[in-house]
């Protein structure tokens, strides 16, 4: 049995692929897979009809924070950044280099996805509250994507963002699905970045790239974006009850499962920071679950033995699927179909595990104290 602690690099390479040129990097960013970040579009007319008066007081405070723009001078590389890149990058093994590049490319694609979605909503609506919010969030995500791209250019692997916008496929989501998925994406992004930042703050010798020094203030942008969607959802209470609880449950599990499988393709990356991938992921799940109690009446039980076993099984099936794809031919295709069915079955079993119930707090917003 293959476990997360014993993944071999040949399995990992099958899952993440090899990036050796700018063409490879751009192709990887464009490609849509189960694990890769996607680009989204939505129903702009429905977004235009949103009314946030029920949360007006907290909304106005948040808008003032966006207007204050405390990160306007943050995403700039200094002389120390350039020197650290020059010193540290040659020390990376080829395997570690590939995992780090995969991390940068998927992170850039995720950040740029948010930028495009928020900007498209802004351009296609008249609602002043939502238009203002989307303007601020697109601004933030543009900075994040550009900053990551600068680090890719250190490897001569910069992504052509204009070409990426034109060529990557878009997925249509109803507004409520955008709210659930994007809220979780922003909050789990915060949890990931702050967990890495705190670890490297304690162990600076394990900081193998200077970009991690930017993560604390960076992840507070992610946190505030999540707060924005929390306020929108709490202003539309029908989104948080009835059959929509089933959708919330689905999106929580889908986001957690995607992260878990993707992170277990990067064991060297986490080991270099002093983590085990499994321990890191469950810490991120814990933080995200605690935060999400501000808006979601249900949460998955991440400590349930069957939940943990199911996550491990999804990793095994992902590896088996990649091996079958590499094999090709009729046998390879049959094996891929088999692993796909098994993955759906495993996800279904995870979905029907008991969930925890939460009473929503009167005060919606929470502080980034992790």
Structural topology:
Elements: H1 9-16, H2 22-30, E1 39-41, H3 44-48, H4 56-68, H5 79-88, H6 94-123, H7 128-153, H8 161-167, E2 170-172, H9 175-202, H10 215-235, H11 244-263, H12 267-272, H13 277-292, E3 298-300, H14 305-327, H15 329-351, E4 355-357
Parallel strand pairs: 1-2
Antiparallel strand pairs: 3-4
Helix pairs in contact: 1-14, 2-6, 6-7, 7-10, 9-10, 9-11, 9-13, 11-13, 11-14, 14-15
Description:
The protein is mainly α. It has a domain at 15-70 and 81-244. Helices cover 66% and strands 3% of the residues. It has 15 helices and 4 strands. It has helices at residues 9-16, 22-30, 44-48, 56-68, 79-88, 94-123, 128-153, 161-167, 175-202, 215-235, 244-263, 267-272, 277-292, 305-327, 329-351, and strands at residues 39-41, 170-172, 298-300, 355-357. A two-stranded parallel sheet has the order 1-2. A two-stranded antiparallel ribbon has the order 3-4. Helix 9 packs across helix 13 (277-292) and helix 11 (244-263) packs antiparallel against helix 13 (277-292). The two termini are 35 Å apart. The model is unreliable at 1-9 (pLDDT under 50).
